[in-house]
Amino acid sequence: MNHSVLQIHTLAGIRRARESGERRIEVSGFDSPDVLAMLLTSSDHPESHVLVFATDEEARQFHRAVDFFSNSWSVRHLPSFDVTPYSGLYPNPRTVADRVSWIHHVRNIRPFQFYTATVESVSQRTIPQQSLQGATFKFRKGDEISQTLAEQLTRLGYTASPLVEDVATFAIRGSVVDIFSPAHDRPIRFDLFGDTIESIRHFDPATQRSDDEIREAVVLPAKEFVFNDEIRERSTRLFRQDLEKRKASADASVDESEAQVVLHSLAQGHLFPGIDFLLPYFHETFECPLDHVNSDLAVWMVNPIETARAGDTLEESVKREFKASQNLAICPNPDSLYRPLENWNFDHIKATITVSKLAIDQDPFASDDNRIADFGSSPNEADPSDTSSQLKLSTIDLRFAPPTPQNPAGVEALARLQSWREREETVVVAAGTAAQSQRLAATLEKQDWRIEILAHEDFDWVAIKRRQHDDQKLVTLVPRVLDSSFRVPEEHLVFLRDEDFFGRKSRRREKATAVNETFKDFTAAIAFTDLQVGDKVVHVQHGIGVYEGLKRMSVNGIEGEFLALSYKEGDKLYLPIYRIAQIQKYSGPGGEALIDKLGGTGWAKTKIKVRSQLRELAGELLQLYAKR
Predict the structure, then answer these.
(1) Cβ neighbours for 39, distance < 8 A, ≥ 6 positions apart
(2) Do residues 522 and 538 touch, judged by C-beta distance below 8 A?
(3) 128 in Cβ contact with 65 (< 8 Å)
(4) Cβ 575 vs Cβ 582: under 8 Å
(5) CA distance 204 to 611
(6) Which of 175, 182, 531, 614 has the largest CB neighbor count within 10 A?
(7) Mean pLDDT over all residues of the chain?
(8) Share of the chain above pLDDT 70, in %
(9) Residue 525's pLDDT band (boundaries 50, 70, 90)?
(10) Which of 521, 455, 519, 461 is nearest to 491 (CA)?
(11) Is residue 183 within 8 Å of 108, Cβ to Cβ?
């Protein structure tokens, strides 16, 4: 790893303010996730941060920027549910598990970690701290495994599976126990001798191959609640009371059959679709993810005006949907499911830092009787118990006029590049890929610039500044992605993008992995309105089959929806609906002979043949372009 960090003076000021005990710090001059990533990754201190954005897109942009500036830091995101409580749909189990994972890790912090969230995901109710602690289990080599492990895991929200590929599943096969806990990024495997753990290893869910041994495994609840006798009784009683209250309303006509199914399932302690929205019935204590944050972490509120607006929009939206959904069996009051921004609790947090383009003289997250009257480098004279500080990092968002016949792409950027380098400012251009870096290098070299293209894993920013200081005709190209162009005058830094020279282009969305797909990603891959019973579909692993519709099935007492696919010789595959991204509609020539045999070798041979033909085609194209 080659990583020498930038030294940003503002970050040193923030650190001094925190060390002096100041609890509320305002940083003005920017609100860009890219600038924030540059600022925070310039630290070589082994610390971590919580960052709250207005939207998921801003959080994703911050993640991409972290990958641009550093390979030492990692990002863990807290998702909100991908469907609303009043949509009649239910959240993806992966999303629920990711929330539990974030809460666990933000309590047990590691160095060089960013914990990102949005207003919605932080406002959403979660499992109380005491309940989470009581349902967290740690295993080490030599520990005894209980004979009732399967029953315990089921109570924690896990589902038994022949093969552990997804989070919140487990498999017990003789002396081997596989569990995919939200605490780990990959599933864990216990090798047993009798009931004693002989080894603990991670394994690859795709190949099922084990890796090196690990010291400890942590098993968390797979959901934001844990069923026990007390919770079963409480949830059944409160749900029934809420049901009777809504039935008594002249405006409500609750689906009686669905309501009875929910009541029966709660009383029996069975999981069912939509149960994740019933947290108000499970827990007496109303806690949100911020309540779990380790007190040593700083919480960054990015662009407080926009986050406040996002909070208002969320509150209005869920209340409107709640009012229109009184006929649904599952219809929790939004006041019991979301905590408004003005009620967020920062009392246990040592430092809250707001980031905004313009300085604000009041804390938008404080109540009216607890506003910050003044910001200064010393404690507030109006309130000796209130320590606050104001810092600034002035940045300039760079935008270039779209190309025209009179003003070709790159002319403005080249002129400004010349000006910045004459003032000895360090200029770095994010080119996205190695190929695009080569293309841009050829363009700039024609203008008499000397170009260096960094290796993808090179993050030595100090060396870049030193080389450009020694050579005023040198420009550095980085084959990584940055979403915006900006300048930091006081640090003599300029970050550009290749599109500033070539004109704006649409970037291909990065390929999402099955591990972090959401329900919205899945439905983007295939729409049920376009899929009819009898249509041919292609499964990524099993090949071409026939779609036979949706089927409700009970697996280990848990109801769920599955896509029924038929294959040659009558074989059936029931695909959980949250794995819909694994199929797409077939659009080739017809014929029953195309149907694959489930578990056969035909589909694997077809994929190998296609790959071979694509390589040959790519080779021919390369030869053709070389001749040109």
Answers:
(1) 8, 10, 11, 393
(2) no
(3) no
(4) yes
(5) 24
(6) 182
(7) 85
(8) 86
(9) very low
(10) 461
(11) no
Report residue 578's pLDDT band, with 50, 70 and 90 as the boundaries.
low
Distance CA 356, CA 257 (A): 51
Most confident of 68-82, 355-369, 372-386, 544-558: 68-82
CB of 220 within 8 A of CB of 100?
yes
CB of 63 within 8 A of CB of 77? yes
Residue 511 pLDDT: 41
* Cα torsion through 153, 156, 160, 165, rounded to 10: -110
Average pLDDT over residues 160-166: 90
DSSP for residue 304: H
| Nearest C-alpha neighbor of 167 from the set 463, 554, 608, 513 | 513
CA–CA gap between residue 118 and residue 123 (Å, rounded): 8
Instruction: Single out the residue of 492, 470, 493 nearest to residue 482, CA to CA.
Output: 493
| Averaged pLDDT, 597-610 | 75
Host H or E run for residue 52: strand 48-53
Q: Using an 8 Å Cβ cutoff, are 351 and 23 in contact?
A: yes
**Cβ-count burial 548-566 (b if 16+ within 10 Å, e if not):** beeeeeeeeebebebbbbb
Q: Average pLDDT of 3-24?
A: 84
Q: To which residue do tokens 């194209």 refer?
A: 621
What are the structure tokens assigned to 174, written together? Answer: 């003789």
Q: Is 129 within 8 Å of 292 (Cβ atoms)?
A: yes
Distance CA 546, CA 548 (A): 6
Torsions phi, psi of 39, nearest 5? Answer: -65, -50
Q: Would the CA dihedral through 224, 230, 236, 240 be positive or negative?
A: negative
Res 624: pLDDT: 67
